[in-house]
Amino acid sequence: MQDVSRRSFLRAGAMSAAAMNLPMPSEASAGSEPKLTGQTMMNVSYEAKNPRVALIGTGGRGTSLLGNLLGCDAQVVALCDIVAEKAEHAQSLVVKAGQKAPELYTRGDHDYERLVAREDVDLVVIATPWNWHVPMAVATMQHGKHAAVEVPAATTIEDCWKLVHTSETTRKHCVMLENCCYGFNETLILNMVRAGEFGDLLYGEAAYLHDLREELFSNAGEGLWRRNFHTLLNGNMYPTHGLGPVANYMSVNRGDRFEYLVSMSSPQRGLDVYRKVHLKEGDPRWSEKYITGDLNTSLIKTANGLTITLKHDVSNPHPYDRINTIAGTKGLFTDYPPRIYFDGEDPEAWGAIDRYKDQYQHPLWKNEGELARKLGGHGGMDFIMCFRLLECMRKGLPPDMDVYDAATWSAPGPLSEQSVANGSAPMKFPDFTGGRWKDRQGSPIGKEA
Ligand SMILES: NC(=O)c1ccc[n+]([C@@H]2O[C@H](COP(=O)([O-])OP(=O)(O)OC[C@H]3O[C@@H](n4cnc5c(N)ncnc54)[C@H](O)[C@@H]3O)[C@@H](O)[C@H]2O)c1
């Protein structure tokens, strides 16, 4: 009897979705789940070695990462950029740090292929525009090197799978450089979550709310490529900064997983309004048609039933905000500014997180915080991330964040686009881990280093 009513319920669900012309979650990602390779890179250690590092992309982000890597005494052997002056500037930083001048690869868009073919490279760091991440990471792994790729790792589900398959078949790691997972607050809160301070977790909120209008219309740096994505995609094109830390709080890919999302976009207005004020008549950028809704809001459901609200807006006035909320049965934390509340406290007031610092400050920040803050890079988190990546490689540990995290945290990009295009229909996340998300627990970032 129970079975019959369950079946009728499911049928009714299918009918109402069909009546509304919406795909069911199971249909939504049909065709996007290619056969698994049967091998896994989960919990696979790096070979213990001080890696020789090459960097592709010596623009704003690449140069900043280079400074942090040099601050961690990384050996840098090769640099690549299509703009020779940028590569030369990066080369001068390596020489200033007391190392031999790294070889430069500046002969156009595909010169990275010569770099990844070198014999003397162990790790290739990729800080290029989004459309280059996957071809560069795949070529890196196919040539027997580990890859560390900027965010988002991939912009299509097919490419997420490509990274997973290449990593599994080449036995090389592909980590996504999600620096926000190493923020002071994020690592402190992760330790508190793991200690059970928030009780049973219920929901999180994550975002990338960053007024990038000036950068998007700049004639240098990201202005040369990022605005173009606003003519192509309507969804959340930069999901990982807010989502990575919340996924770690929730042990996603380590006992839980993202199951599906629904997404909505507001109208597009911000870039048009900015253009009216800042561009002269006849500027070629007037011919562009922006289609990205200014505020994209997605709602993710996990297999264990938790929910995450995920937002993206880079086109309007807004103070910088990743929201960074985690809530449970005993209390909650929310960021920007950081504040915390526990059961039994004054119900009219948030508390400061300072009182938890002594007990829960992460060892990485305890030990490396001073240098991290001095070298900078988003308040020191970039240094901590680079330090930890090199530490995992030097000590022969598995990476904190693996190719499954790179694929899973990038997937809301294309899934939100599909959902928006289909009347906010639910879109299923592929299980990039092949079911192995059940076999391990808790982000290693939360443990004693
Ligand atoms: N994690 C973070 O906090 C953070 C911050 C900023 C940017 N990013 C990411 O870093 C990446 C780079 O962003 P950016 O701000 O440095 O942009 P950028 O435009 O300043 O730098 C990109 C560089 O890549 C070079 N490039 C382009 N195509 C190339 C090719 N085929 N071969 C070699 N070099 C090529 C460009 O000449 C440029 O120097 C992006 O993925 C972005 O999302 C991450």
Q: Low-confidence segments, ≥5 residues, pLDDT <50?
A: 1-31
The fold-level CATH name of the largest domain is Dihydrodipicolinate Reductase, domain 2
Helix content: 25-40%
CATH class of the largest domain: Alpha Beta
End-to-end Cα distance: 53 Å
Average pLDDT, rounded to a whole number, is 92
Taken from the alpha-carbon principal axes, the silhouette is globular
Task: Tally the beta strands.
Answer: 14
Evaluate the radius of gyration: 22 Å
Task: Provide the list of bound ligands, each named once.
Answer: nicotinamide-adenine-dinucleotide
- CATH homologous superfamily designation of the largest domain: Dihydrodipicolinate Reductase, domain 2
Strand content: 15-25%
- What kind of oligomer do you see? single chain
Number of helices: 17
Give me the CATH architecture of the largest domain, please.
2-Layer Sandwich
Count of structural domains: 2
Largest sheet: 8 strands, mixed
SS-based structural class?
alpha/beta
Strand order of the largest sheet: 13-12-11-7-10-9-8-14
